[in-house]
Task: inverse folding
């Protein structure tokens, strides 16, 4: 009897604690929105960032942080956070608009590399179909395959099997295609090498050190790929194909450090 | 009837008598050396085709007539089935000057049908010596003849004239400029050489030549082929002395070969017309009306309304039209006065060089009688050197109550719409509401893979089910065993409907024994003894066998001695049967 009551008490405490925790998360977000509406972008930024530090991964949150940085005239961090929002939700409309607009304000001209029809279509597909949607599609196709196999086992022993086998092969092909696509999307999500320059300017050298030949100069808000990251210098590759080494603390990767 | 026909015939024949006569005279050169001869040509064209008297050269003392040659050309044209003919006689007098100095060849007179036609006087200059070799062609219009030497006196025989409609203008007053090409050569091709810079003017093209087409014109007594190159309207933007640039052209002239072994050649020349200076003055300040918006010229203002009896909510169109001569493109339409309860929408304005029209779509908003007052329009008339104000007539509109709601607006078609334009760009607003759930791809969640596992487990489950199914399909006893209960239920139903009657025992016995036979996998119709003995081999609750045996005995008794059972007994036995069935169904059958 005593034991039961204690368990109920602990459970109630847990529920309350969780409720308080949830309450504070939402109120922190609401306060951030209020501060943003009143023009206090610094406070809004602190509120939204504190939620990110609580391990909340949300496209909307990153988007709001990007907007705060944009209003505080930190173009590099604004672009970085828009990219983070789009990594989670590639079809986030507002983040796409704001990123496009923010990129027009950077000193370096940066265009979307997806200009030809095929990659343009792929970009559109990537925006419309989320990673979790693919997960559902793959699981549903798997279920269909298993159901067809079960039907085959149960009802088709010793009978003509061509009709169910036809549907089975279609389902398997679709399953493989969506599975491979999902796998590619997941690896792109996990191993995103993109980074955004946060310093005003960065000089790219042909090797890890200032003694090497200067190759290029990029400016705040430039998006590039990180090939190799070392403590002081990182090897990067720009959108136009130029490669070089820049200082590691001048940029931040889109995928946050764990 | 016959008289009418004759009169008609006479009229037709007499028509040439009423034909117009044109007389033109020209010289091939106006500057002549003492030792040269020159040609005075007199052309007499008559649209009728009959002969005209030969013109006589006036008596002058500074030239000597060396002879005259006559050429005749006729042309017939058919227009709309009606034929007309014209005949041109050209009399070429070869003259040699006898004195030096400036002289005027007096008009040459031709008499015809008692009427005298005369040409314009021609001024010539006679100098010492020879100016040039005599041209071999007597008429510049003979295309087959050799053109005059192109390397000599080009500017006398090929030039562009800049004709302006006025040399003094007010700022904003349109000036018509015409560029004319005059030539006595055989022009094969030409092109405009670059654009002109009309500094201080606003320019509008009226005409631009796109093909070579000459007509004839006499200028200073010399006949030329003339072509209108371009016509423009210039509106001065500045006051002071402004320059209208001369037009520049590239012209190709055909030079005929002189001997058999030579070819025809074309030579290209660039020629430029003279610049013209225009004095532009500001419009006077005195007497300038308040509603003057820059109209200069001579205008007429008209107004029109498409209906003046309306219902509330009806639309109508009020039109103001300006016609006349002036700078239509450069001023605003007079503004419409506000009329209460008549709502005017933005007007549709059309302007061109000939006029300007403004259509105001209006809507009657209230009932009553309203007056659209006269619209005043002021312009500056440069001919009178003063401002003129004109006005339209006023209109009265009767508005009766409408069918629909008051204030209902029916839109007049044709109102100009405009697309919404983007005025600026910014980032979007932040997201105000979100569920703050942390994103994690399903692919990285264990629950997702557990679902996969569950799906995969369906396959062995299906295998198990299939095995069970095939086992049952192949075994009739198994089916009997499984269906026994439903068969028993059928008999029991039958038996229960027979409670109170003696037939109950027959149904009860058949049902129960069939049930037991199926469950014990014995053939149907086995005796109750066989059934009971088979059942006795199994574990049963104590007393069940005995009670079954007693029940079967009672059934047999009832069948052989139907009289000994009351309704009360049968009801008791039915209860016994139900207990027995309950107990039997709880048994484990194998």
Result:
């Amino acid at each position: 009897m005593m034991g039961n009551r204690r368990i109920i008490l602990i459970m109630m405490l847990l529920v309350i604690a969780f409720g308080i925790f949830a309450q504070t998360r939402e109120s922190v977000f609401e306060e951030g929105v209020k501060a943003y509406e009143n023009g206090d972008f610094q406070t809004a930024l602190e509120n939204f960032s504190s939620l990110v530090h609580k391990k909340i991964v949300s496209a909307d949150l990153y988007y709001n942080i990007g907007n705060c940085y944009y209003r505080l005239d930190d173009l590099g961090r604004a672009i970085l956070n828009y990219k983070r929002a789009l990594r989670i939700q590639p079809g986030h409309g507002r983040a796409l608009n704001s990123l496009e607009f923010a990129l027009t304000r950077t000193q370096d001209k940066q265009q979307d590399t997806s200009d030809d029809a095929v990659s343009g279509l792929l970009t559109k597909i990537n925006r419309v179909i989320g990673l979790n949607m693919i997960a559902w599609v793959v699981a549903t196709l798997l279920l269909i395959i298993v159901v067809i196999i079960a039907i085959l086992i149960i009802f088709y022993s010793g009978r003509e099997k061509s009709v169910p086998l036809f549907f089975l092969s279609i389902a398997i092909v679709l399953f493989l295609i969506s599975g491979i696509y999902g796998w590619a999307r997941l690896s792109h999500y996990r191993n995103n090498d993109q980074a955004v320059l946060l310093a005003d300017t960065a000089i790219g050298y042909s090797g890890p050190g200032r003694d090497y030949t200067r190759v290029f100069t990029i400016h705040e808000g430039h998006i590039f790929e990180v090939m190799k990251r070392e403590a002081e210098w990182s090897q990067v590759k720009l959108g136009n194909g130029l490669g070089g080494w820049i200082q590691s603390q001048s940029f931040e990767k889109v995928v946050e450090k764990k | 009837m016959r008289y009418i026909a004759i009169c008609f015939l006479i009229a037709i024949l007499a028509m040439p008598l009423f034909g117009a006569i044109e007389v033109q005279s020209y010289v091939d050169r106006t500057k002549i050396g003492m030792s040269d001869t020159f040609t005075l040509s007199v052309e007499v064209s008559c649209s009728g085709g009959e002969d005209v008297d030969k013109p006589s050269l006036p008596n002058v003392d500074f030239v000597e007539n060396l002879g005259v040659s006559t050429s005749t050309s006729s042309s017939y044209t058919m227009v709309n089935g009606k034929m007309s003919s014209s005949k041109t006689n050209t009399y070429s007098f070869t003259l040699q000057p006898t004195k030096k100095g400036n002289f005027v060849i007096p008009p040459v007179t031709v008499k015809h049908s008692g009427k005298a036609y005369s040409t314009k006087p021609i001024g010539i200059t006679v100098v010492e010596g020879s100016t040039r070799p005599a041209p071999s062609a007597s008429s510049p219009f003979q295309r087959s003849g050799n053109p005059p030497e192109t390397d000599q006196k080009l500017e006398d025989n090929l030039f562009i004239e800049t004709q302006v409609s006025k040399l003094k203008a007010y700022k904003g007053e349109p000036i018509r400029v015409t560029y004319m090409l005059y030539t006595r050569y055989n022009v094969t091709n030409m092109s405009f050489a670059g654009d002109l810079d009309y500094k201080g003017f606003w320019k509008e093209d009226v005409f631009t030549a796109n093909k070579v087409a000459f007509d004839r014109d006499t200028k200073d007594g010399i006949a030329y082929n003339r072509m209108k190159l371009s016509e423009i309207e210039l509106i001065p933007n500045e006051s002071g002395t402004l320059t209208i640039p001369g037009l520049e052209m590239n012209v190709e002239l055909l030079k005929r070969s002189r001997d058999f072994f030579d070819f025809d050649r074309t030579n290209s020349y660039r020629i430029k017309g003279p610049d013209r200076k225009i004095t532009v003055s500001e419009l006077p300040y005195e007497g300038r009306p308040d509603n003057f918006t820059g109209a200069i010229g001579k205008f007429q203002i008209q107004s029109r309304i498409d209906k003046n009896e309306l219902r509330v909510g009806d639309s109508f169109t009020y039109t103001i039209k300006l016609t006349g001569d002036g700078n239509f493109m450069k001023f605003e339409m007079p503004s419409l006065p506000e009329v209460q309860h008549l709502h005017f929408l933005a007007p549709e304005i059309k302007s061109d060089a000939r006029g300007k029209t403004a259509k105001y779509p209006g809507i009657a908003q209230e009932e009553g009688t309203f007056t659209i007052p006269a619209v005043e329009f002021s312009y500056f008339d440069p001919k009178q050197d003063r401002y003129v104000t004109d006005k339209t007539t006023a209109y009265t509109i009767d508005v009766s109550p409408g069918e629909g709601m008051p204030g209902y607006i029916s839109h007049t078609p044709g109102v100009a719409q405009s697309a919404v334009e983007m005025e600026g760009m910014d980032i979007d607003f932040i997201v105000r509401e979100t569920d703050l759930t942390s994103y994690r791809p399903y692919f990285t969640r264990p629950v997702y893979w557990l679902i996969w596992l569950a799906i995969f487990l369906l396959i062995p489950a299906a295998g198990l089910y299939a095995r069970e199914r095939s086992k049952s399909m192949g075994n009739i006893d198994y089916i009997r065993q499984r269906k026994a209960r439903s068969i028993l239920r059928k008999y029991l139903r039958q038996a229960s409907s027979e409670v109170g009657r003696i037939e109950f025992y027959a149904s009860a016995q058949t049902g129960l024994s069939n049930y037991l036979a199926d469950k014990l996998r014995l053939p149907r119709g086995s005796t109750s003894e066989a059934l009971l003995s088979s059942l006795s081999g199994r574990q049963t609750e104590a007393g069940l066998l005995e009670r079954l045996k007693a029940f079967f005995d009672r059934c047999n008794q009832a069948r052989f001695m139907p009289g000994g059972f009351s309704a009360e007994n049968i009801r008791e036995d039915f209860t016994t049967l139900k207990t027995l069935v309950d107990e039997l169904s709880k048994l484990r059958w194998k």
